[in-house]
Write a structure and sequence with these properties.
Elements lengths: L8 E6 L2 E6 L6 H9 L11 H21 L4 H15 L18 H18 L12 H5 L5 H37 L4 E6 L2 E7 H23 L4 E2 L16 H13 L4 E2 L3 H6 L2 H27 L10 E2 L17 H25 L9 H25 L5 E2 L1 H9 L9 H4 L1 H14 L3 H7 L5 H7 L2 H4 L25
Parallel strand pairs: 5-6
Antiparallel strand pairs: 1-2, 3-4, 7-8
GO biological process, one term: tricarboxylic acid cycle
Organism: Microbacterium schleiferi
GO cellular component, one term: cytosol
């Protein structure tokens, strides 16, 4: 008969009773109950490293403020401070195990942080984990705090930290499009509106447009980031500051600003800021804007590279993998496709945030966990999507110059450039004739006696067609009486 030895455990007790906690765990009974209650996402909060770091920053700031105003002795405050710093530095993140989606308005996340930091601090003091008579997760690590001010503050700090890496990737992608704009500055092509041939432009102008729109998103995201700088730390349960020293709010803000390097400020109305989550909705909306515009760019890249024989085929994307299990040689635009899907997810997450913000009741919004998860996931996925788009797609795009030159040469859209000189009616008639006959539009204009060959060549030069060189003077417009009709055999 085989005997199984029970894994080492310690006993912890809360108001509901006692539980066995793995001896090697830094988390405690409150975390253990959350693990039982919320087996929903199967994703621990540690997947968002900046949220864990932000929680530790808040605990560190609170310890320093509590020591400064005299409500926590220097020895315990120093231990909490040191333990928090270890988490900020990236250690013990695997101990932040509660699910990202949870009931309780974030209480489980706050208690997970309290327990882990407390038990790290106990070890630093040479004491066993769970020795809460000496250092308590609630009485000491959570002193002057409530989940209701710790959790939203940590979310805002974490998102602010996470945003920095997103902005770095966004700017790198913008620069990648700018490099391509320079590379393709002299590649003339036919522009399109409503998927129909329009007037000429350069491929460089098209890629410069992509870079510009991403630069605008960089500005919008930066502007909306400031909405996250208003925090309610010191509000405690509902904004009245109950259980906190009158000097605590100012002290903890000062320390948190120093720790985070962020220009944080305490909300003017702590009751309002504890119940209101509008800043998250605005920030989420700016992420959605960026995601949708990235998706539109990805759509354009897929269209421009369609083919290679029966599509537009204007550009070639780097071949990243075999595209079919049945069609040999097929290569698909898999990188833009995955960016599209990330954008769809971000749009859905934004709706989730919107509903969660609306669902708040009275003095608290209980749905901040799903708000946090939605926005952190959006930032994480967008950062990764932008990187793969840049590294595995944009940097390797090439222009199919011969195909583009041929399409411009055969395009009747170039006649638009001649309308200031021959008039709209004549241009329209010539365009119709060119389509019917398949002949070059420039030849038809010269044959009709509307412009000389030199004048036509000047106006149909790549620089003029793309608008890079402005038309400085107009020739007299030919009267309608001289315009060929659509039935003329030119």
């Amino acid at each position: 008969m085989t005997h199984h030895t029970a894994a080492p455990a310690r006993i912890e007790t809360d108001s509901l009773g006692s539980m066995q906690i793995p001896a090697d765990a830094y988390w405690g009974i409150h975390t253990a109950r959350a693990l039982e209650n919320f087996p929903i996402s199967r994703r621990p909060i540690s997947v968002y490293a900046d949220l864990v770091r932000a929680l530790a920053m808040v605990k560190q700031a609170a310890a320093r403020a509590n020591a400064e105003i005299g409500v926590l002795d220097a020895e315990r405050a120093a231990l909490i401070d040191r333990a928090s710093q270890l988490v900020i530095d990236g250690q013990f993140h695997d101990q932040f195990v509660v699910g990202v989606v949870q009931g309780g308005a974030g209480t489980s996340t706050n208690m997970n942080a309290n327990e882990v930091i407390t038990n790290i601090a106990l070890e630093l003091a040479g004491r066993p984990r769970g020795d809460y008579t000496y250092l308590s997760p609630i009485d000491h690590t959570n002193r002057s705090q409530s989940t209701n001010d710790v959790y939203p503050t940590a979310i805002k700090v974490g998102l602010s930290l996470d945003l920095q890496t997103l902005l770095e990737e966004l700017d790198l992608l913008r620069q990648s499009f700018l490099h391509k704009a320079t590379e393709f500055h002299d590649v003339l092509k036919v522009g399109r509106t409503q998927l129909q041939d329009a007037v000429p432009m350069t491929l460089g102008q098209e890629f410069h447009g992509f870079a510009t729109t991403l630069g605008q998103d960089y500005q919008r995201l930066t502007e909306n980031a400031h909405l996250l700088f208003e925090v309610n730390l010191g509000a405690t349960a509902i904004g009245t500051g109950i259980t906190a020293h009158p000097d605590y709010a100012d002290a903890v803000l000062r320390h948190l600003r120093e720790i985070t390097g962020l220009d944080l400020e305490t909300a003017s109305d702590l009751v309002e800021s504890t119940s209101d989550t509008g800043a998250f909705m605005s920030f989420s909306a700016s992420l959605k804007r960026n995601a949708i515009k990235l998706s539109k760019i990805s759509n354009d890249l897929r269209l421009l590279s369609s083919g290679p024989q029966a599509g537009l085929g204007e550009i070639s994307l780097p071949a990243r993998q075999a595209g079919s299990s049945i069609m040999p040689g097929k290569v698909n635009p898999v990188i833009p496709e995955v960016v599209n899907q990330v954008a769809f997810a971000v749009a859905g997450a934004d709706l989730t945030v919107t509903m969660a913000v609306e669902g708040g009741q009275l003095q608290l919004n209980a749905f901040e966990p799903i708000i946090a998860h939605s926005i952190f996931q959006s930032i994480t996925w967008m950062r990764r999507a932008m990187r793969t788009l840049r590294v595995n797609c944009v940097d390797g795009i090439t222009a199919n110059r011969e195909r583009l030159a041929a399409s411009v040469g055969a395009s009747v859209g170039v006649v638009t450039a001649l309308t200031p000189f021959i008039g709209y009616a004549a241009a329209a008639a010539l365009a119709k004739s060119a389509l019917v006959s398949g002949r070059n539009i420039a030849e038809l204009v010269v044959e009709a006696g509307l412009m000389s060959r030199a004048e036509v060549d000047k106006q149909l030069s790549p620089a003029r067609l793309s608008g890079l060189e402005a038309v400085t003077a107009a020739m007299p417009i030919v009267g309608l009486e001289n315009a060929p009709t659509g039935d003329t055999d030119l």
